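thought: fold this chain, then report.
action: predict
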Amino acid sequence: MNTTWSRFNILSVVVGFSFLYLPILILIIFSFNASKLVTVWGGFSTKWYVSLFSNQGIMDAAWVTIRVALLSASIATVLGTLAALALNRYTRFNGRMLFSGMVYAPLVMPEVITGLSLLLLFVAIGFDRGFWTVTLAHVTLTMCFVAVVVQSRLVTYDRSLDEAAMDLGATPVGTFFQVTLPVILPAVVSGWMLAFTLSLDDLVIASFTSGPGATTLPMKIYSQVRLGVTPEINAVSTIMIAFIATGVVIASIITKRQEVQRKRDERMAMAQP
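observation:
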């Protein structure tokens, strides 16, 4: 099908992408600015990256953020996948509507409300705020996103594959790990990446649930920006952009290769007599 691009369409795409990515490009360029003034170009320099890695406060916050993101994304992926399986496989059970609403509530709940609710919960049960409260809060936030991604894949999943495996003697658990999981793995990986990115980016919920020694990188950046933007902030933001973009590219390549392999296997299976 031939697609014709009018001048209006081209202009709309250029303006839209410029609005989205031009500020990011400017931030990356000025992270290599030799001047202390972030709006005045003083020449190319990498000294702010050297200064960044010698800033112990930012390094500690980055380490906390990475640990929280890795742990919360992994837990959220397991729970979100199980929730998606329950909602997809068991269409009728008592409390299904309530369960579904509780799983997807963080999608539509303002982060301020979620953060305040979790804060009140942790205070009520006497749970000291710190690394684990931030991790649990991020699990609560990201689990629903994983469930949405995995359930969208399960909608098109062929249940006859599971039935064939169990007819051949596989247990339900063995069927899941040997048949179901490999097929839905791209969605699971995508859900993990989404949860990891959301955890890295979160500021509001972490601000409510963090405590001494659990300052995340977005919180650290926000506290410094309030006193004025420095080239170090541009440098750390550039590193975060590069880190997330690399992860997205790797996940896309892996997903694409798995999809190509799956289609190749299907063609080979159909070609066999």
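thought: worth noting. The chain has one domain: 56-271.
final: tokens above.
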